[in-house]
Amino acid sequence: MNEDDPINGLPIRQSIEDGVETFEATIEGETIRWDKGLTYSRHLQTDKLLGSQALISGKPDEMLFIIMHQTMELWIKLMMHEIREAMEALRADEIGKAGKTLDRVGTIMRHMIHSWEVLATLTPHDFLTFRGFLRKASGFQSHQYRELEFLLGLKRAELILVHDDNADAKTRLTDVLNASSLYDEVLQTLARAGHAIPDSHLKRNWAQPYESSEAVEQVWLSIYTDPGDHWDLYMLGEKVTALEYYFQEWRFKHMKTVSRVIGRKHGTGGSSGVNYLVKALDLSFFPELWAMRTNMTASREDGDYSECPNS
To answer: Which domain holds residue 101?
Structure first.
């Protein structure tokens, strides 16, 4: 059965496939098909997504501010999904599969780093036209960001207080606080591979802040000293290190963007603004992976360095 499109006069062919009414038309030489089942907009919930920008000021630059932060929240949601997938792979000792997933997380982080450049086009004057309308709303209140920190291993229970009026967020954060982090699962993987991770770091209260261990540092040092003998774990260490490297770069770009837009003003949520973001640059998820680099020494297996052929 054919039916003409009332706007373009094109013939639309109809049929039933798998019990679903299906349509087909030839448009610019291409055969285009759709049905009354799943559509692009229903799958992606685009109507809901595109209708979620609730401007409160009527100022034109607020749209940029909202969409930039909404996209950040979406990327954080995807990162947490992927990190949990990597943790499941580690529990099954599928190190290669975990590494592939961690590579994806690193790529997402690099994208997020560059996205600050879009927000940095917001001039101080632009932001001040609507900043007052935000009242005490602040990125400090992002429960997803806090969950991401917990998931990576930076546990700070007192920060859940900010979400006391959001029962669902508070419950979710409390659950993640009391569960093992990505780094905890990495250490469990090292232990199952025969490395001497102390019990204090394998059987501990996950809700407590992670404390650096000299013994764990020595394990990483032994792996990095002989990467050929521990290639999978060596590459796992590098992929995990890359996450913190990119995360810190994201934090730095955040700090510089805030500095460019509001200078040294306090944050809308009461924090010290740029000064608070600078302090965050000293926070570490995987301390031993960074510390052991200082203690690494070069192998002399290729001979005496003084015997330089160009001397």
So the answer is: 71-295
Are 290 and 241 in contact by the 8 Å Cβ rule? The answer is: yes
Structure tokens at 113: 């780093």
Task: Examine the domain organization and report whether 150 and 272 are in the same domain.
Answer: yes
Do residues 188 and 233 make contact, with C-beta atoms less than 8 angstroms apart? Answer: no
CA proximity to 253, closest of 110, 155, 123: 110
Torsions phi, psi for 30 (to 5 deg): -105, 140
Amino acid at 303: G
The tokens describing 79, both together, are: 């990162």
Q: Which residue has the tokens 């301390």?
A: 287
Indicate whether 128 and 268 sit together in one domain.
yes
Q: Do residues 185 and 91 lie in contact, with contact meaning Cβ atoms separated by under 8 Å?
A: yes
pLDDT per position as a tens digit, 78-124: 999 999 999 999 999 999 999 999 999 999 999 999 999 999 999 99
Angle, CA 54 vertex, CA 50 and CA 58 arms, to 5°? 120
Residues shown for the chain? 311
Q: Is residue 148 part of a domain?
A: yes
DSSP characters over 191-248: HHTT----GGGTSS-TTSPP---HHHHHHHHHHHHSGGGGHHHHHHHHHHHHHHHHHH
pLDDT in tens, 267-297: 777 777 788 788 888 889 999 999 999 988 8
Q: Apex CA 96: angle with CA 94 and CA 100, to 5°? A: 120
Contact between 174 and 150 under an 8 Å Cβ cutoff? The reply is no
Question: ∠ CA(266), CA(120), CA(250), 5° rounding?
Answer: 80
Q: Are strands 2-4 and 11-17 parallel, antiparallel or unpaired?
A: antiparallel
CA angle (145 as vertex; 89, 53 as ends), nearest 5: 120
Residue 61 belongs to some domain of the structure = no
Task: Answer for the pair 234, 96: CB distance below 8 angstroms, yes or no.
Answer: no
